[in-house]
Every structure is written in structure tokens, then in C-alpha cells.
Amino acid sequence: MTSESGTTTVHLAVYDTLADWETGHATAWLARAGHTIRTVGPVAGEPVTTLAGIRIVPDLALDDLRPEDSALLILPGAEKYDEGDELAPFTAKARAFLDAGVPVAAICGATAGLAREGLLDDRRHTGAVSFYLAATGYRGAEHYVEADAVRDGDLITAGPTEPVAFAREIFARLGAYEGKRDAWFRLFHDSDPAAFAELNG
Predict the structure, then answer these.
(1) Pick the catalytic residue: 108, 133, 156, 170?
(2) Among 52, 72, 112, 114, which is most exposed with the fewest C-beta within 10 angstroms?
(3) Which InterPro entries match (predicted)?
(4) 98, 128 in Cβ contact below 8 A?
(5) H/E element holding 136?
(6) Active-site residue, 108 included
(7) 136-195: per-residue pLDDT in tens?
(8) Which of 155, 119, 159, 115 is nearest to 137 (CA)?
(9) How far is residue 116's CA from residue 135's CA, in Å, rounded to a whole number?
(10) CB within 8 A of 36, min separation 6: which ones?
(11) In 3D, which of 165, 132, 169 has the Cα closest to residue 152?
């Protein structure tokens, strides 16, 4: 599925201490579905280092990212979300995306960033655990859902142990793998061997 502007480009935020395991299913399978994945960092061309020590050179700077040029913004978790306001510009960008009707998907620590930005005050959401988000002082606790991943309109949230459920909700929002999402989920979440034939049939 393309965005209203016609783009199929998905933007993946990258920053120091990014949690490597959280977005691989989503980005790899979106790419297989025909989406272009571009990385967005604090500064274009200036490497960031993930929790695994992998260096990533962002394709573009956050300041240059416009909602109208994107089909989706993905915010991975990172330790830096709990270490200060360094990543606040990324959650501010998420607000701009949601205001423009462009979806945002956040997992793990990025959900705390959204909470601090006030973006979870009125939307159904999930995260690592409810008290982790409550510690941000946000006002959306009544909208917290005990689920692997939650999609509320243009916002998708998940906890750190649910990269597969996170990807499934992203696929649903973008219209990827119609008719095959259940098989995809059963293969990668439940290790159901029967799902392989369904997915590749």
C-alpha cells in the first residue's frame, strides 16, 4: 500500500543504542513486499551504533524528513529513551506524522518517548509493561492494553519481546501480505511448519 502522496518509502529511525532485534521482521518483509526502506538519523551520513555495536550510516537527517514523503515512520527502542531527552526530536517528528495522517510504529523504549510527547494520552497502546509507561508521568494509562501489539488508527505500539506481532500490525496498516498475514504470523511466531506452504503458495 502506498501513502496518500503515492510513496511506498518506509522510514526507519536509527540512533545510538537502537535495539537491533525489534524491527528486522518488519523492515525485511516490507522490503520483500516492494517498499523502500530508508534510515533516518540525527545527522545524515554520521554513523550511529546499535546495542550490538553495529554501525549504521543514516540515509537522511531527521530534520529533512517530511511526512508527505513517507508511508510509515518506525521508531525502534533504544536505551537512550530512558537516559534523557536526546531522542525527543524523533517523537516530535512522530507527532508531525500523526498530525499529517501518516502512520507511526513504535516499539519498546520508543513507546515511552511517545508517552512523554503526549501521543499516548488518547490512543489505545501497549508497551513493555504498564508501569514502565506510567513512570513517564503520562496521562494515558487508561488506554493501556495488555496485548502483544496494538494498532489504533495510524499508531502501532508493541513491547520489546514482540517484534513479530509488531510487524504483523505494520503489515495490516500498510495492506501488505493480504490473505497471508495469518500464515506469516504462525510461521514466525508459532513455528507452525504448515504455515510455510501457505505463505509461499
Answers:
(1) 108
(2) 52
(3) Class_I_gatase-like (IPR029062), DJ-1/PfpI (IPR002818), Prot/Nucl_acid_deglycase (IPR050325)
(4) no
(5) none
(6) yes
(7) 999 999 999 999 999 999 999 999 999 999 999 999 999 999 999 999 999 999 999 999
(8) 115
(9) 10
(10) 8, 9, 10
(11) 169
